[in-house]
Design brief:
Membrane topology: Multi-pass membrane protein
Structural class: mainly alpha
Subcellular location: Cell membrane
Shape: globular
Mean pLDDT: 82
Protein name: MFS transporter
Keywords: Cell membrane, Membrane, Transmembrane, Transmembrane helix, Transport
Strand content: under 5%
Organism: Sphingobacterium tabacisoli
Length: 417
Amino acid sequence: MDIFRSLHYPNFRLHTIGQSISLLGTWMQRIAISWLVYKLTDSVFWLGFVSFVSLSPSLLFSPFIGSFVDGRSKYKLVVITQVLLMIQAAILTLAVYSGWVSVYWLCVLGFAQGVINAFDVVSRQALLVSLVDNKKDLPNAIALNSSVFNAARMVGPAIGGFLLSTYGELVCFFINFLSFIPVLFTLSQMKVNELQVTKTKQFSNWQGMKDGFDYLRRSPHIASLIVIMACSSLFVIPYTSLLPAVAKDLFNGDERTFSWFESAAGLGAMIGAINMARLKSGENLRYRVLFSALIMGISLLLLAYAHYLLSALLFTVAVSFAMMMQNSSINTYIQTHAMPAYRARIMSYYVMAFQGIFPIGSLIIGAVAEGIGIKHTLYVMGSIGVVIALGFYTYLRQHIHRRLFKFPLPLSRARRS
């Protein structure tokens, strides 16, 4: 089928198989940590704080990491990060098994995982272009990669919720540790030919980071999308960190109810990713970003208004569908428009805007929710989402106007118009 054309490439197929198994374990661990934190503290603020600690390295280090990755083998870096993540999962499992787990240790281990993930995400995003021989299939590969991520996000929490309520957190953490075995095996079977970027003797990571920022500043069509990503990550996307409280406080649910919300979010994101996989070349991705941002804000307002569990789950599907469409459109646009020599550095700004800003948003949203309640916080987030979409619409209108003014139609064509 045309929608799965990227899987014809052996390297991408191996990558997809390994990741699909490993990500199931990752989502089981995430849902177990979220519920464990909320059980230990009974605090929305601590939910946001643990998320902030685990994702803050993407904000602090991403530009430096992009410069670091651009001059090195992305494949080798991905192998190293997977080994380190496996070790982190083993330590977390032992900590829970020994009974000395606490919010403090969850923060320490979360920060360590965040540092490793910051290198892994940038390296993996930059490697993706080397896994597909025909660059026309790169948008399809990006969409399918997102589909795998979100299929795991849908299935992983459902399995994790069952295991969590039946056997406890330890089983979820141990399964995540085991899930790294297949991804390391599939990585060992790849034969990747990367385009090597030669460095001068005077090259430094600091200079590389500066050059990457200068390139981004000269590319407003890319920079504007990163700004949209940052605003969404700060004020809208952190709704995911509130899902445990939505399940427990608004609908009097338990672990299984929480897993339903996580699975609903994963279902919506997977539908969005499949829709992106059907993307045809030449489509205007920036307008996809615009409409997705608007749908995300409206759906959040409807989620805040929902009185019944089923309707809340449906609106959660809608929010995540729009979020996936927005994020994947921005990712695809950057991957296909950034110069190869700067790709990792520009992707590092995307990662910073997505994963780096998100923990700050989670911290802010958690604090706001403590003060004004979950429902009112969702109303505020949805309203800001709509404002972000309207602001981007205004920017696009002005940008098109400037281009038409700078490059007017020929006189003969203007008369015919």
